């Protein structure tokens, strides 16, 4: 039961996962479409003296326009969707594992096989 509760807490954390522009590593920044090594370095340099609260703040950096800001916003949505799919997969795995455990306990106590539906 504790494992299930922990899984649900972890799932809630992942649902809101997104790249934090203020703390992201160079590699994380480069995972966003349109941001290469140079642009990632520009972001890292900019955030040394400025706070990036939202993707719109990137427009203050030379060479960053609507396209890149849009890609950053889309990247956040995409990572949420991927994370939600992973979470659902983990939930299904845990349900199957729990069902197998329960079936084994029933078989052990009754001495008969549990019919599969």
UniProtKB/TrEMBL annotation:
Protein's UniProt name: Competence protein ComEA
* UniProt keyword annotation of Hydrolase present: no
Molecular functions per Gene Ontology: DNA binding
Please provide the record's keywords in A-Z order: Signal
Disordered: region residues: 72-99
What the entry lists under InterPro entries is as follows: Endo/Exo/Phosphatase_dom_1, Hlx-hairpin-Hlx_DNA-bd_motif, RuvA_2-like
Please report the stretch or stretches of sequence annotated as the Helix-hairpin-helix DNA-binding motif class domain: 27-46, 56-75
Basic and acidic residues: compositionally biased ranges: 74-99
- Tell me the classification of the organism that encodes this protein: Bacteria, Pseudomonadati, Campylobacterota, Epsilonproteobacteria, Campylobacterales
State any GO BP term from the record: DNA repair
Pfam families, per database record: HHH_3
The stretch of residues making up the signal peptide is 1-17
Q: Does the keyword Iron apply?
A: no
Q: Which domain of life is it from?
A: Bacteria
